[in-house]
Here is the input.
Amino acid sequence: MRGILLVATIVSAGVATASAAPVRLQDAQLAAAAAGLSVGNGNGNGNGNVGVANGNGNGNANSGGGNGNGNGNGNSGSISGNLNGNANTGIANGNGNGNGNTGTLNGNVNGNGNSGILNGNANGNTQNASGNAGYANGGTGNIGAYNGNGNSSSTSGNNNVGALNGNGNGGTNNGNGNVGSLNGNLNGNGNSSPTSGNNNGNGNAGSLNGNLNGNGNTGSLSLSIAAAR
Here is the structure.
């Protein structure tokens, strides 16, 4: 009888655990968890500038995840794109500032000293005809450096902020709207059907999120219907 009661107790405990609702952390809790990490910070800063005293002192002394990326790129003239994206903590702060400016004294001292999530991004930029600002960006609406390149569809690799986001995607609607670094890359490749490998790696914040999804799938909807018949 004791053995039966013990088994019943274990089973009931397992059911209670399985039915418990997931707990959603608040932004402050997520930022605190990231404070002990340092990944994907200070990438893609100070590239492709022309003139005098452009693109200096960006992306320094950051901690947390995906902070201080894609600042001070693609400026021309003088004294532009400096001192952006420094001393941030938390997640996805101080990215995509001071890019693509011309003239003098533009896009300086933005996105510094932020904490929490998604603060101090995309300030002091001048976007080109493709909606991009910075250096070596593909697609449309990308701000920073090395975003939105090598995608098979114009629906992929757009509207990213920071560095090294939304690259090398196949399929459609992959690698869009990411903030930070190294997000939304290498999704939707090697699929045998256009109905596979789509809508991956979008809307991530921080670093190393939304990569390598929806690859190498075979079969198609039409083949499945034919087989069923």
